[in-house]
Amino acid sequence: MSRGRRAPVRSYGVTGWGRAFLDAVEGGAEHRQVTGARRYFRDRHVDALSITRGVVTASVRGSQLDPFDVRLEMRTVDAETVVGLLVSQGATDDLLDLARGAQPPTLGGFVAPTESADVVSDCTCPDERPRCTHVLAVAFEVAAEIDRHPATLLTVMGTDLPELLAAASGDGASGDGASGDGASGDGVVPAGSTGSDGEDRAPFGDDPFGDRLVAPPVPSFPAVDPLDDLDPTTLRHALRATGVATTEVTEALDELAAVYEVLTRRR
């Protein structure tokens, strides 16, 4: 790192799903522990972070010579229950939105922990409080991962997208591909359709990954240059916050303009 250049600012819990996870873990934590955890997160004191179904483990370098071991165990969700709730709310498209990298709020509300009791924490440090500084530091790292990769929340809560899609399509396809029970001729059941018995069918049929879906047309870009509409001072501050050196801000702006020019040609 060159002299005078600061490391990029790290963030956590800046998205809805990341914040929801943190709200459950931080519940009841003291301000002192939260402040110390932020420092540990900023200084990268969390090592060996492992996120598996319903369990998060890591080691945190604290005030003693040896690191402390942290373990978080979640009250996991049931895939079929989550899908049933999505169907009842007419929000099964949330699964496809998640596959595209979005954080649909309805799905998040059914998956994310809602209270402190949903997350049991343990740390080898001598602090006997439920949420010590090391536990919170690990939670911040998990929230940052959720911010970057929304599907991480599913793993944390004991499921994943393929399992949810399988639950959504498990009862949707007819055995012989006939269309008389509400299925289309190619075996795909339209979203919100019902069978001859009046029961709701799963919205994805036998095409849970949308291989036969027709992609929507590429949206057209407005005939304006958004870079001209942005406050140049604010934009420069945003670039600096990502770690771009002051001497490279102008070059970064030129690169943004070039990228936008390429995008607007593909209409």
Structure report:
This protein is α+β, with helices and mostly antiparallel strands and about 270 residues long. It has three domains: about 5-75 and about 115-150, no CATH class; about 75-110 and about 160-170 and about 190-215, no CATH class; about 225-265, no CATH class. It is about 40% helix and about 10% strand. It has helices spanning about 15-25, 30-40, 80-90, 95-100, 105-110, 135-150, 150-155, 160-170, 225-230, 230-240, 250-265; strands at about 45-50, 55-60, 70-75, 120-125. Strands 1-2-3-4 form a four-stranded antiparallel sheet. Strand 1 (about 45-50) and strand 2 (about 55-60) form a beta hairpin. The longest helix has 17 residues, at about 250-265. It is flat and about 60 Å long.
How many structural domains are formed by the residues?
3
Tell me the fraction of residues in β-strands, as a range: 5-15%
Low-confidence stretches at least 5 residues in length (pLDDT < 50)?
171-202
Query: What would the principal axes of the Cα set say about the shape?
Result: flat
Tell me the major beta sheet: 4 strands, antiparallel
Q: How many strand units?
A: 4
Tally of individual helices = 11
Q: Give the strand line-up of the largest sheet.
A: 1-2-3-4
Termini Cα gap = 41 Å
Average pLDDT, all residues: 79
* H/E topology pattern: HHEEEHHHEHHHHHH
Classification by helices and strands: alpha+beta
Helix content: 40-55%
Radius of gyration: 23 Å
